[in-house]
Amino acid sequence: MAEGGFVQDQTSDNVLGSQSLDILMLECPICLEQLRYPKSLPCLHSFCQECLASYIINESSGKMASASSFSCPVCRRDTEPLYQSEDKQRWAEQFPTNNLAVEMIQHLQNTRTLTMCKPCQKKGDMNIPAKFWCEQTQSYFCESCKVGFHDLFHENCEPENITERNKSATIRRKMSATGCGKHKEKLEYYCEDHQILGCHKCIIVDHRKCEAVTSADDFRDKIQTTKIEDLLGELRKCVNSMEILIKDVEEQLQSMTEDQVTALESLTDLRTKINERFDVLQKELTDKLTASFKEEKENLDISRKKCERLMFAMQKTLTSSQDADLKEDTVGTISLFQRGQAEVESCKGLIQELEKSSRSTSLRHEYNPDILTLDTKTSLTLGKILVHQQQRKLPTAVVCKPLSERQLKMTRKINIKVPTDEKDCTLYGVVLLSGGRIVVGDDANQKLKLFTDNVDFKCDIEISEALCDLCRVDDNTVAVTLYTDKSICTVNVTDLTLTVLSKIKIQNVTEDCLGITYNNNTFVVGTLTSLYSVPQNEGEATMLHKTESKCLYLANDQRNGRVFASIYTSYPDAVAVIRLCDGTHTDVLKVGVVKGTTGIDVDREGNVYVCGQNSHNVIQMSGDGANIRELLTSSDGIEYPRVISVWGVKVVITNETEQNYVHLFQLV
Fold it and tell me: Fewer beta carbons within 10 angstroms: which end of the chain, N or C?
């Protein structure tokens, strides 16, 4: 029996409702259970000590043993332990305990009990909950007994309100008053230089030389005026962006699931028309289809989970901002502000990360229908599974800057001359693929070479023919024009190897074949005077358009199939870029800003990039040529630019003055 009245076990919906915010803030983002031994990171996100320790160990597995930091599981902010030399299994113990969370948990554990009013018990009514506690009389009172009994005899005594809402507020006030983890003193000051709260001892010892140290109340007033609202607005935008991305991932997964079902149905339908000797072949193809689907599904699931985890964290921060008591809580307000800032930056970083890696994957089963014809000479086969990948534009996200507003920033220069080369390189073709793979065509040494954007040389392959332009067929296949042989060579590209797949002879074309692109199962090839359509399976070439000068390079917009051709000329007002669409052509750029157009490519948003070899510049323009801006000039160190290739936000450019190098840029 408690002093002043006994305790009755009871759970109230009203009590649970008043605690909903506290319960939300006391949930571990990793295990989604109530926090156990809660530890707070510098970004102010809290986790169970055991969960955080396991996360740190898993995060550092496979990395160098000397790794000195890890990323926050929620906002991904880079975090260093206090003592890096300690075993990683003990890093979690070094972070401060979230004493507020401990107090709140203890408070929540006691909410199942209701204290009864002592005077009412003496009158025989045992079920009247107490609402006030008198320290002087050591007794509990309901509201009626406080007014009718206590206040009559204790005029100068003010009992404490012990309702659940006030208990929660009292705990927060107590934690604010003695919240310093080092000195157990009241957190009264804020250092803007280090963005940290501190007591008067912390400020004297650690922040004497800092320029911007104010009282915590002053800093709270400063950020409450505009910054909190601005931050909450940013958080709402970020939550909206995450919702859009999650929906997009789900749509991609649905599309891939439908592709998988269609392909499996096609396999099953064909399998019923042949005998059991093809069981092994069917299994091999099914395994490849399933493995390809599983791999891409796992990638999409990872992206979705990252978005969901960050979105839930930001939603919690927004929910916390609506707590009325928080407005009077200096430490809580500043903590909310700091946590929100970290989450906004993490949201922008995650969008940029997805922007770089985003790609569209389609799965398809193909076979030759002639195998179903009687007395055919076609080899019996179950066909093949085609996995086609291409770069994809993310759905509109409010915090993501479009590529048409970004600038080119050079990141590195890669030497592509290898020890087996007998001559200096002559680079007429470059293709940038996903994963940072770069395939270059070296005409002087008659080779294709594979590099990574980390300056790693992987392999090369001899073609033994004069090489010109390169184009991307899919994420694992490129094609190169052999201009004197008047043919197209297709090559498979993995992370480590290059393998020739086929050689397609371009029929009824007598001129040297120069530029090339791939569009809707057909190649488009440029010559000295014309543009041709060339079937993928070796048929006769069809003339699409006569040009006034040679077409060295071609590119296509993967979103709509439009083909862009650069026409090499420097004559004033001559056509420099042509667009082909639905059997018609449009002159979209004339000689002016650019002269001697060479390399050309299209990004995922439909922006067209054009190299001006004789004007020493690189421009970006809209697909209709209406909007044009210079990205690079000779003042940026690019002279006589020759070839350009774009993948995501990465751009590779070559120039005539440095034939042994390719220059890697990023749109920022």
Answer: N
Structure tokens at 601: 């490519």
pLDDT confidence of residue 397 = 59
Nearest CA-CA partner of 465 in 496, 433, 500: 500
Q: Which of 145, 179, 213 is the last residue of a domain?
A: 179
Question: What residues have CB less than 8 Å from 585, skipping those under 6 apart?
Answer: 544, 545, 578, 579
Q: Are residues 124 and 58 in the same domain?
A: yes
Distances (CA, A) of 242 to 25, 74, 232, 251, 584: 21, 13, 15, 14, 41
If one compares 383 and 625, the residue with the highest pLDDT of the two is 625
CB 469 within 8 A of CB 550: no
Answering whether pTM is above 0.70, one says: no
pLDDT per residue as tens digits for the range 345-398: 898 888 878 877 777 788 888 887 777 776 667 677 778 888 877 777 677 655
Give the domain range for residue 117: 7-179
Whether the CB-CB separation of 459 and 489 falls below 8 Å is answered with no
- Shared domain check, 543 and 425: yes
* Number of neighbours of residue 562 by Cβ within 10 angstroms: 20
179 pLDDT tier (thresholds 50, 70, 90):
low
Q: Say if residue 475 is in the same domain as residue 499.
A: yes
How many domains would you assign to the chain? 3
The span from the first CA to the last CA of the chain, in angstroms, equals: 68
Helix (H), strand (E) at residue 289: helix 279-321
Give the number of residues written for the chain.
Answer: 668
Task: Give me the helices (H) in 467-508, please.
Answer: none
Any domain includes 27: yes
CA distance 119 to 501: 93
Q: What is the largest CA-CA distance in the chain?
A: 114
The last residue of a domain, from among 156, 179, 202: 179
pLDDT in tens, 464-482: 899 999 999 988 999 999 9
The values of phi and psi at residue 229, to 5°, are: -65, -40
Is the pLDDT at 461 greater than 80? The verdict is: yes
Predicted pLDDT of residue 172: 53
The CA–CA distances, whole Å, from 152 to 11, 128, 155, 156 equal 33, 20, 6, 10
36-48: average pLDDT: 87
Statement to judge: residues 561 and 614 lie in one domain: yes
Strand segments, DSSP code E, in 420-556 are 427-432, 437-442, 447-452, 457-462, 467-474, 477-482, 487-493, 498-505, 516-519, 522-526, 530-535, 542-546, 551-556
Q: Which residue bears the tokens 């339908």?
A: 269
